[in-house]
Amino acid sequence: MPWPLYLALKQLFPSGRRLPFFTIISIMGVGLGVALMLVSTSVMGGFGHQIKQMIIDTQGEVQIRGRRPMEATEAVESAIAQVPAVAAAAPYAQGVVMLEYEHHPAFPVIQGFDLERIRQVIPLERYLTAGALDDLDDDSVILSSLLAESLGVGVGGKVSIYSPLMLERMKRNEVLLPREVRVAGIFRIGHQQLDSSTVICSLRLMQDLYGLQQLIHGYNVRLKPGADPDAAVAALDALLPPVAQALTWFDANADFQAVLSFERNMIFFLLTFIVVVAAFSITSSLLVTVVRKTREIGLLGAMGGRARSVAACFCFQGLFIGAGGTVAGLGLGFLLLHYRNALVQFIASFTMGQEVFVKFYQFSNLPAHTEPKDVVIIVVFSIIASTLAGLIPAWRAARLKPVEALRSE
Amino acid sequence: MASALQSFSSSVLSASGLRKTYPSGDRVLAVLSGVDLTVAAGESVSIRGESGSGKSTLLNILAGLDRPDAGELFWAAEAAHQLSLGELTARRGRFLGMVFQSYYLIPELDAFANVLMGARMVGGVGAAERARATALLQRVGLAERGHHLPSHLSGGERQRVAVARALMNRPQVILADEPTGNLDERTGDSIIELLLGVCAEEKTALVLVTHNPAHAAKTARQLFLHDGRFV
């Protein structure tokens, strides 16, 4: 073992003596930074993963969108059928309507699905909190939970739907009465936006409301397990007529994903400063060590130690503190992630009730999803920052002339 | 010049015309004013002098830790004064060993590891080096205390470890700068006996800087430094 490496290890972890206080503090500093970076990226990753699952559950992995309302022609259907990665597809149409219940208006997004085919694409039953999907027909709708709550309507209640088609008819001095439909069910997905303003109905009802006749807005597509959405989209786009284009779940929600990604990266960026501060503390501690060990550094020179080897000794100390702190931080981080829900409940019990927590934050369990790539980035960053932290003390040590160092008091 | 070179080539350490000055305010303080010194292989030489007479400066120059303003220095046959400080550092570990007044043991290493450190710094540590370190510790009377940290050793024991460390790489010369300065008289005497004894056994030259006339008298040659010259 090269002597700078050996001496660095011995100075940090001396045999037969207690671990030096500065080593413990420095390792703890790096460890805390690493743990916080791991927990924050994992929790943000958990949210992202949960939202991805929610999007896939409500749209499928791929959406085929018409550039304008299109017909569900044989050409489109056969193009979809030709792509081996596709497990099922169901046509949809969607728009905005006004919903009224006992003089309470709301303006939700309404989505009409082919009720026969949609079950193979979207697991609607999983999200139903009241009513049944089998009760949904051309004269009924399923409301999202917060929408139903704001209107004060429950299953069996009757709501009126006003569509943009009514305005078109008014221009021609025709009066189109609002469509009165029954509430067949209530669903809750766990996403504020979807739960507060979404209505699900049959494709036929949606086509009637918007005067679409046989036209649709696109297809929701479910892929076979393990299929690559990007490859499936490329295959679909090659076969679809020009009126339609395929999008992955990610591209279909690109703006939202960009915001999520930005938030995640910003949190990561801000937390890197904890490691940077820890690195400064390593620098400061090692500088004190250089001053304290000036005569030892002189001795190393007198024994034939080159300046660059003395410098390497301090760089290695930074590296070992970084490596030790990273290992400790990963351990602490994974421990915190394992007990995250107990911790959240404990904190929530002091600050707010669990119910309030669920109501405002939309989840009862804190999600977490750790990407191996993120772990690699955290490990590499913290070790590099800690090693660089040793550079200034190393430079100071290397500049000491043995004869002056040995003379120092 | 030729005779001087011949003299240098037969000696282990040779210096001629060494001069060293230090700025002191507006003045220039001459610490060494033309020192000539030749030490033969296995010879023991003591250097005495008043405080500030330049003993330590001379020792540092002989060790290649400091540069003279003028003069020549030969380590065996090699012209050390022509080498850079980096080149001197690279050769120093094998050519000479140093013993200091304050021991300068590495506190995180036990006695055995401190002795072995000399070998570690110039090459590697194998079975032969471990055996030599064990033998040296035994020779300095610390066979049982090899795994004790410096903080658990007395001053005399620490200096014995320092002596063993200086001898680890079988250097051609040991430079000892007041090695008994921090020790009581009896312990100091035993350290000098030890230094002279092991240097004789190892056929290593010894340059001993000391204030103690009795210690100096035990060396083969005694020199006295006054006003930057040997008198």
Classify the beta-strand content of chain B into a percent band. Answer: 25-35%
Inertia-based shape of chain A? elongated
- Termini distance of chain A? 32 Å
CATH superfamily of the domain at 42-55 and 84-230 in chain B: P-loop containing nucleotide triphosphate hydrolases
Q: Kindly provide the radius of gyration of chain A, computed on alpha-carbon positions and rounded to a whole number of angstroms.
A: 31 Å
Query: Quick check: average pLDDT of chain B?
Result: 86
Largest sheet data of chain B? 6 strands, mixed
Compute the number of strand runs of chain B.
10
Percent in helix of chain B: 25-40%
Radius of gyration of chain B: 17 Å
The number of helical elements of chain A comes to 18
Query: Which ranges of chain A are low-confidence, i.e. pLDDT below 50, for 5 or more consecutive residues?
Result: none
In quaternary terms, these chains amount to heterodimer
Order of helices and strands of chain B: HEEEHEEHEHHHEHEHEE
Class computed from helices, strands and strand pairing of chain A:
alpha+beta
The strand count of chain A comes to: 12
In short:
Chain A is of the alpha+beta class and 409 residues long. Chain A has helices at 3-12, 21-59, 74-82, 124-127, 145-151, 164-171, 192-196, 203-210, 229-239, 249-252, 254-292, 294-302, 307-338, 340-351, 354-361, 372-389, 391-399, 402-407, and strands at residues 62-71, 86-96, 98-101, 104-106, 109-113, 128-131, 140-144, 158-162, 179-187, 198-202, 215-223, 244-248.
Structure in words:
The complex is a heterodimer of chains A (about 400) and B (about 230). By secondary structure, chain A is an alpha+beta fold. Chain A has 2 domains: about 5-50 and about 255-405, no CATH class; about 85-225, no CATH class. Chain A is about 60% helix and about 20% strand. Chain A contains 18 helices and 12 strands. In chain A, strands 1, 2, 3, 4, 5, 6, 7, 8, 9, 10, 11 and 12 form a 12-stranded mixed sheet that branches. In chain A, strand 3 (about 100) and strand 4 (about 105) form a beta hairpin. In chain A, helix 2 (about 20-60) runs antiparallel to helix 16 (about 370-390) and helix 13 runs antiparallel to helix 16 (about 370-390). The two termini of chain A are about 30 Å apart. Chain B has about 230 residues and is an alpha/beta fold. Chain B has a domain at about 40-55 and about 85-230: P-loop containing nucleotide triphosphate hydrolases (Rossmann fold), CATH 3.40.50.300. In chain B, strand 7, helix 7 and strand 8 form a beta-alpha-beta unit. In chain B, helix 5 crosses helix 6. The longest helix of chain B has 18 residues, at about 185-200. The model of chain B is unreliable at about 1-10 (pLDDT under 50). The interface of A and B includes residues 6, 299 and 301 of A.
